[in-house]
Amino acid sequence: MPGxxxxxxxxxxxxxxxxxxxxxxxxxxxxxxxxxxxSVEERRGEILEFLxxxxxxxxxxxxxATHIIFKGQLGALMGxxxxxxxxxxxTPAVEQGASMEIPLK
Length: 105
Prior knowledge:
This protein is an all-alpha fold. The chain contains six helices and no strands.
């Protein structure tokens, strides 16, 4: 345990709801737009890069939530099928290269 913290404690630190709430208020209040308006060009670039990273994280959060809900433990608790440990073996017809096309009459 480096630094006297266990893995659970270090991961829980990543769930900083106070910071998220402060960031949400900063965006909703219009203060970010005001800061952008009065900032020098270099700072404007930093603000735009921050917003781009935030949008990327939003997409990642959405993907992660989907994975947790539909493929992870929560889905299993709710009676949803989870991921299979191993893919199914192909049927003999597929192994022999059988066509999946429907024959035309």
